[in-house]
Amino acid sequence: MMHLPGHTEVVPPHRRYDAVAEASAALVIRSYSSSFGLASRLLAPAIRRDVRNIYALVRVADEIVDAPRPEQGLVDRSNELDQLEEQTAAAMITGSSSNLVVHAFARTARRVGIDLALVTPFFDSMRADLTQVEHDFESLAAYIYGSAEVVGLMCLRAFLAEESKADARYDHLAPGARRLGAAFQKINFLRDFGEDCDGLGRRYLVGLNPDKPDEDAWSLWLDDIDLDLTAAAAAIPHLPASSRVAVCTAHDLFAELTARLRESSASEARRQRVRVPNAGKAKIAAGAVARRGMPRGARGVTA
Question: Which portions of this protein are annotated as coiled-coil regions (predicted)?
Answer without folding.
Answer: none
